[in-house]
From TrEMBL:
<dbReference type="InterPro" id="IPR057670">
    <property type="entry name" value="SH3_retrovirus"/>
</dbReference>
<feature type="compositionally biased region" description="Polar residues">
    <location>
        <begin position="170"/>
        <end position="181"/>
    </location>
</feature>
<dbReference type="GO" id="GO:0003677">
    <property type="term" value="F:DNA binding"/>
</dbReference>
<dbReference type="Pfam" id="PF25597">
    <property type="entry name" value="SH3_retrovirus"/>
</dbReference>
<feature type="domain" description="MBD">
    <location>
        <begin position="111"/>
        <end position="179"/>
    </location>
</feature>
<feature type="compositionally biased region" description="Acidic residues">
    <location>
        <begin position="190"/>
        <end position="206"/>
    </location>
</feature>
<dbReference type="Pfam" id="PF01429">
    <property type="entry name" value="MBD"/>
</dbReference>
<dbReference type="InterPro" id="IPR001739">
    <property type="entry name" value="Methyl_CpG_DNA-bd"/>
</dbReference>
<feature type="region of interest" description="Disordered">
    <location>
        <begin position="169"/>
        <end position="206"/>
    </location>
</feature>
<protein>
    <recommendedName>
        <fullName>MBD domain-containing protein</fullName>
    </recommendedName>
</protein>
<dbReference type="InterPro" id="IPR016177">
    <property type="entry name" value="DNA-bd_dom_sf"/>
</dbReference>
Length: 206
């Protein structure tokens, strides 16, 4: 190429084969807790574009990218697999490590799995209907053994989730079963008082 063009070609992009390489992972392909780069081994250069070809042992595939940081002071095989004579044995060791990691994660997930919920004994709860003084409405409350007043089905659900209890909305009825007679009696008394005052006024006029 130098003879044909008359210019000395640049070799700044050339790197040592087998060096340790870090492939950048775009932000859209990771979250805040995931690493910013994947570690691999430099195996060549990209064919149809500028960049490098890096083998990722954990994913067992070769990727092409221009966003690669190469550490030529470290041998990728020795760094990732240690000093081994046979490359197949190195792959076997890597698979064993990955399997051990997956087993540990499975054990952690199993140990951190949620405990079964306790059954809810509705017989220990108290249901109370309380009529209002200035309206015909009747409020319904449920009192669990902790004496906490629950005003709605949503309050009951939150209480069950907080105390690890099974929640069944069919066990609770927030519709009043009685009518508010207090307001009706008060209305009748007011009517009688008003009628008596009208009669007295008519007698005075006579």
């Amino acid at each position: 190429m130098e003879i044909w063009s008359g210019h000395k070609p640049s070799i700044r992009h050339c790197r040592t084969f087998g060096s340790l390489a870090y492939v950048y992972v775009p932000i859209v392909n990771r979250n805040k807790l995931q690493p910013k780069a994947k570690i691999g081994i430099l195996v060549g250069y990209a064919v149809n574009r500028r960049g490098y070809r890096v083998w990722l042992p954990k994913e067992r595939k070769v990727v092409e990218s221009i966003h690669v940081k190469i550490d030529e002071t470290k041998n990728g095989v020795k760094t990732l697999f240690g000093k081994v004579k046979h490359y197949d044995y190195a792959i076997y060791q890597l698979d064993q490590n990955l399997n051990n990691d997956s087993d540990c994660r499975a054990k952690d997930e199993k140990s951190s799995s949620p405990k079964p919920l306790s059954s809810l004994d509705i017989s220990t709860w108290i249901r109370l209907e309380k009529p209002r003084k200035k309206s015909k409405r009747i409020d319904v409350y449920y009192y669990p053994p902790s004496k906490e007043r629950l005003r709605s089905i949503n309050d009951v659900k939150i209480y069950c989730e907080r105390n690890k209890l099974e929640f069944d909305p069919n066990q609770f009825n927030f519709k009043p079963t009685t009518t508010n007679t207090r307001l009706e009696e008060k209305t009748e008394c007011d009517n009688e008082t008003s009628s008596d005052s009208v009669d007295e006024a008519s007698l005075d006029c006579k």
